Amino acid sequence: MTEDHVDRILEQWRRERPDIDLSGMAIIGRISRLERMIQPKLNEVFARHGLESWEFDLLATLRRSGAPYRLTAGQLLQSMMITSGAVTNRIDRLEARRLIRRRKDADDGRVVLVELTRSGLAKVEAAVADHAANEVELVRGLDRQQQGVLQDLLRQLHGWLSEVG
After folding, report:
1. Closest C-alpha among 118, 114, 121, 105 to residue 75
2. The whole model's pTM is what?
3. How far is the C-alpha of 95 from the C-alpha of 145, rounded, in Å?
């Protein structure tokens, strides 16, 4: 296995502070570096479709909810883990682009639903296919078994961090 940038940082810390447990830094440092390497590659795909990452996130949340591709703002809020003000702002901006629309719930007029428009559906359909292919390419350095192990480990770490807050 080749040495990476994090290994060099860890070696420097081991030399300077051999009394500190660096096992967390070895993992978190790599996760942080990977995020900085991956995000620009994701953004390239979104940009080809005329989208920002947050726009894709909201459109994809509606799309993966299933037909008729509509949710309340509260459901979007839960699914996307952002503030209510951010959801409202994002809805406003995507509505101005005619990728989504608001409509009153037929059963309860007090409830406002957010749904994909035809152009929003077409845009997210094209973008998600390219996005998924891009992500497959980004993890191609790991075989399927390694990808499964990594998924399991990350799921476990995410679950534990969610529990401890």
Report:
1. 114
2. 0.86
3. 42
> How many CA atoms, within 13 angstroms, populate the side-chain half-sphere of residue 133?
9
Q: Does domain 52-164 have CATH number 3.40.50.300?
A: no
Q: What letters, b where the CB count within 10 A reaches 16 and e where it falls short, cover 101-119? A: eeeeeeeeeeeebbbbbee
* Sign of the torsion formed by the C-alpha atoms of 46, 50, 51 and 52: positive
Q: From edge to edge, which strands make up the β-sheet containing 100-104?
A: 70-72, 112-116, 100-104
Cβ of 161: how many Cβ atoms within 10 Å? 9
pLDDT digits over 4-58, tens only?
999 999 999 999 999 999 999 999 999 999 999 999 999 999 999 999 999 999 9
Q: How far apart are CA 142 and CA 137, in angstroms?
A: 10
Crossing angle for the helix pair 53-64 and 118-138, nearest 10 degrees? Answer: 110
Instruction: Tell me the H-state helices in 49-143.
Output: 53-64, 73-80, 84-96, 118-138
Helix, coil or strand: residue 30:
helix
